[in-house]
Amino acid sequence: MIKRILVLDKGHHFIIYKLIKKGFICDENYYSSMEEINLSIYDGVILRSRINIDKCFINKAINIKFIARIGSGVENIDIKYADKKGITIISSPEGNKDAVAEHAIGMLLCMINNIIHSNQEILKGKWNREENRGMEIMGKTIGIIGYGNTGKAFAKKISSFDTKEILCYDIIQNLGDIYAKQVDMNLIFKKSDIVSLHVPYTYETKYMINYNFIKNFNKPIYFINTSRGKCVFTNDLVKALKNGKIYGACLDVLEYESFSFEKKFFQKKFLKNFFYLINSRKVILTPHIAGWTKESKYKMEKKIVEKIIFLNKKFNKY
């Protein structure tokens, strides 16, 4: 039975209100370190990214039955060890899939139609029409890497632009649907004009977008990343932007983000590439806000509540 729940990130009043209404006890702790919290009294934990749930945390939380992360990625949780301990992992990727998809398309439209760049020129008194001639999504081949919740939402929304075809790749088989045909990566490499990345951050996807990967594309592409920054090796991305293998990059996430995603951090070796990104008209950057809408906040929290209640019913059943 689930009774007492620890909430580690602030700003989620809906979750707390709904769970208390259902009879759960919710303790809020937004500032203490893992060492300062008596984890043994809790049946579950709800968090976003403030604390890393590692083996040490799990070993101290001896009665924990679930760990719920508000969001899609669970890279701050030792999933294998939690599974070994019989702990259920809960996340809410269904809640922000539409926000991510809309943001990805919004960035793409700004990129291929020079919207941000031409706006900045007008503010400086420049009126350049021919130099800012755009390109249409219509008639283009879209390649989607990762076809889970956000990949599917992106395919559905971009299909309304009368694309030539939408291709998707995923390590899980039989995910294709009416919006995207599942293929192997060779066909993505061969046909894509626009590529959007929608993979989780794992050992396998860390730096998967590197120059060896990029050079496989038969023609230059526009690239969108709304997944995780460390899935892309920035040094190689910059190289591809400079030599024309990538026409333009829409990046909502960066390799340089902190663990909590709340700020950026730098080592000296990153500065040169970062300055290239912020100064290039081939690049559009946003601060990890693709899934960060008012609507998605509510939908993610609602999903977390629903899953905790469902899990508790399972425990009570047995």
Write the SSE topology.
Elements (H helix, E strand, L loop, with lengths): L3 E4 L5 H9 L3 E4 L15 E4 L7 H6 L5 E4 L9 H6 L3 E3 L2 H20 L2 H9 L17 E5 L3 H10 L6 E5 L11 E2 L2 H7 L2 E4 L13 H4 L6 E5 L8 H10 L2 E6 L19 H9 L3 E3 L8 H24 L1
Parallel strand pairs: 1-2, 1-3, 3-4, 4-5, 6-7, 6-9, 7-8, 9-10, 10-11, 11-12
Helix pairs in contact: 1-11, 4-6, 4-11
Walk me through what this model shows:
It is built from eleven helices and twelve strands. The protein has two domains: 4-91 and 295-317, NAD(P)-binding Rossmann-like Domain (Rossmann fold, 3-Layer(aba) Sandwich); 95-285, 3-Layer(aba) Sandwich (Rossmann fold), CATH 3.40.50.720. A seven-stranded parallel sheet has the order 8-7-6-9-10-11-12, with helices on both faces. Strands 2-1-3-4-5 form a five-stranded parallel sheet. By secondary structure, the protein is an alpha/beta fold.
In short:
36% of the residues lie in helices and 15% in strands. It has helices spanning 13-21, 55-60, 79-84, 93-112, 115-123, 149-158, 185-191, 211-214, 234-243, 271-279, 294-317, and strands at residues 4-7, 25-28, 44-47, 66-69, 88-90, 141-145, 165-169, 181-182, 194-197, 221-225, 246-251, 283-285. Strand 3, helix 2 and strand 4 (66-69) form a beta-alpha-beta unit.
